[in-house]
Amino acid sequence: LLLPVSNLCGKCRPCDIDLLQPSLNFLYWSLHQPTPCSQQRAVAVLLSNVSLLELLQKVLECTWLRSPPSEAAPLSPEDALLCSGWLLVASLVLYQHRYNTEVHQTLSLDLTEVLKAVIFRKKKPILLLVSIMQFLRAGLRQNFSSSLLVIVGQKTAQGAVEPQPSPPQEAALHPLSTQQVLSLLVSLQNLLVHTQLQKDLLLSQAVVACLETLVEYLYVKNKDVALHVASQPWHRFLLFTLLSGGQKSFLQPEVLRLMTLFLRYQSSNIISQKEISQILQEAAEANLAELPEATSRALHLFLCQV
């Protein structure tokens, strides 16, 4: 079934939403089968389909061609298709790398536009933001070196391609710039504050995961920049904000994961022995069997890091 559905997608246009939406979701589901053998077979079939990859290229480009709504609106069919496209491409990047699958057609993406979609979100639906961040995480985890992707050059505000970054720090972070890293960091922090107000668990999990992957990427590229980003004083205010809602417990998944991140990169100005003791005390008093799965997993990682 995977072969005819992928061939059908390759014959569609981005405007064929009613047909493409369930088809792309089926392809995404096919990639996430439980056995490695099934995953490897699925990614080989999809990456050998040039027409499908050309269609995905057009779908992704619609992200910046569409005008943002005048006000927050529910997920439209067009946005839902974009979500499916970004999630499918993120999975293809992941599994192509895992199984070293041959690529028959590359996808060209402007990294500046991808970052702008998150940094300047312009009332984008939450699910679309989460989907783009999922793709961004896949790219960061592979240092944007996936053989499936061609990252086009950074552009100035006037649209001219900038020369190769000359300072050592900028060259180390390439294809990202220091300014892009800091802008993305501020945007993720603001999104976390927004999720606290809106009580949106899906977005908060995606933002924290993206923040974790960003710092890991920076640590590989330039440890000084990574430690600088991880020790930003604004992070402490962010923690206080997350703890100021109705649920003041430290045993919130996003709080535990942030604490683990700061511990990992030794951000002693963000998390102190006092906070660590409070988390251990709350964990000792909690009924661990009744904790949600996300909380249990985050607590496990925190304790291992301690």
Compact overview of the structure:
This protein has 306 residues and is mainly α. It contains 15 helices and 2 strands. Helix 9 (178-198) runs parallel beside helix 12 and helix 10 packs antiparallel against helix 11.
What does the model show?
This protein has 15 helices and two strands. 66% of the residues lie in helices and 3% in strands. The N and C termini lie far apart (48 Å). The radius of gyration is 20 Å and the shape is globular. It has helices spanning 2-10, 17-31, 36-47, 50-65, 77-99, 111-119, 126-141, 168-173, 178-198, 201-221, 223-230, 234-242, 253-264, 273-285, 293-305; strands at residues 107-110, 149-152. The longest helix is centred in the first third of the chain and has 23 residues, at 77-99. 34% of the residues are buried. The protein is an all-alpha fold and 306 residues long. Helix 7 runs parallel beside helix 10 and helix 10 (201-221) runs antiparallel to helix 11.
